[in-house]
Amino acid sequence: MEPDETLHTIEKAATWNVNSLKVRLPQVLDWLAREKPDVACLQETKTPDGQFPVQAFHSIGYEVVFAGQPAYNGVAILSKFPIESPETVMDRSEDDHRRFLSARIQGVQVINVYVPNGQDLDSPKFSYKLEWLDRLGHYLDRFTPEREPVLLMGDFNIAPGDLDTWDPDGTRNQIFHSEPERYGLRSLFSKGFIDLYRKIHPDTQAFSWWDYRMGSFHRNRGLRIDLVLATPPLAKRCLDVTIDRQIRKNDRPSDHVPVTAFFTS
C-alpha cells in the first residue's frame, strides 16, 4: 500500500474493551460525548451485527464499522471521519471469531484487535492465541512501517513487561506474562510498531485492566494489556497517552478502561 500524502488529522485515538456493548452502551456514549476521540476502537462488544446500535453512534456524530457475534468477542471502529475499505478478516483462515477489524481513516490505517485470552499455558486456547498473533504478524507485513501511518490498537491480552503487571515475579510463567506470548508481541514491535504508552512513559507502572474479583481494582492489582501501537510516522507525532482509571469506578464498569493517544496534527 502506498503512503497517503494527505494531512493526517487524527489527533485523538482511543481503545476500550467495553465487555458487552449492550450493558455498557450508556457509559460508552457518555465517554464519547465527554472525551470526543477522533477514532475509537471497541472490543468485546458481544453484539451480533444485526443488533449493533448504529443509530446511537450516528446521533452523536460517529461513523461506525463492526464485526460481531452473540455473547462473545466482537470489535468496532468509531470515527468522526469517513471510514474507507473496512476488512473483517486477516487472512483466509477458517476462523469465525470476530476479533479483527481494519479500515482506512484520514490516510491512516486503523487496526482494531481483540487478541485471544489463551486461558492457561496448557490449554489448546493458548496455542490458538500464539497462532492468532502469528497470523496478525503476517497481515502486518503488507505495510511499510517507516513510511505508512498505521495505528494498531486493542486488547492484546499480554502484559508487555514487568512494569505492566502488579506482580512481575509471581506471574512470570502465567497467562498474559509467559515468554511465548511476549515473544509474539515483541515480533510485532520488531516489524516497526511502537508501544506509544511505553514510549511516552518509559518508567511508569500503569494498568488498564483489573479483575472483578478479590478487590483487585481497589488493591491496584492490575495489568496493562490494552495497547496503542503505531508506526514511526505516527509515533513521532504522539504527544501523550493516558489511561482513564477513573472510569473503572462507574457503576457496572467494564474490567478494562480506555487508553487514549494524542497526536499533533
Annotate the secondary structure layout:
Blueprint: E1 12-17, H1 21-35, E2 39-43, H2 54-58, E3 63-67, E4 75-79, E5 84-87, E6 100-105, E7 108-114, H3 124-140, E8 150-155, H4 179-190, E9 194-195, H5 196-200, E10 209-210, E11 222-223, E12 226-230, H6 232-235, E13 238-243, E14 259-263
Parallel strand pairs: 1-2, 7-8
Antiparallel strand pairs: 1-14, 2-4, 3-4, 5-6, 6-7, 8-12, 9-12, 10-11, 13-14
Q: Any low-confidence stretches, pLDDT <50, length ≥5?
A: 3-7
Question: Major sheet: size, sense and barrel closure?
Answer: 6 strands, mixed
Number of domains in the coordinates?
1
Shape: globular
Number of helices: 6
N-C termini distance:
22 Å
Please write the CATH class name.
Alpha Beta
Work out the number of β strands.
14
Examine the secondary-structure arrangement and name the CATH architecture: 4-Layer Sandwich
Give Rg in angstroms: 17 Å
Task: Summarize the amount of helix as a percent range.
Answer: 10-25%
Based on secondary structure, the structural category is alpha+beta
Order of helices and strands: EHEHEEEEEHEHEHEEEHEE
Pfam families: Exo_endo_phos
Protein name: Exodeoxyribonuclease III
Family: Belongs to the DNA repair enzymes AP/ExoA family.
EC number: 3.1.11.2
Kindly list the characteristics that best describe this protein.
globular; 6-stranded mixed sheet; 265 residues; 14 strands; Deoxyribonuclease I, Chain A
Briefly say what this structure is:
By secondary structure, the protein is of the alpha+beta class.
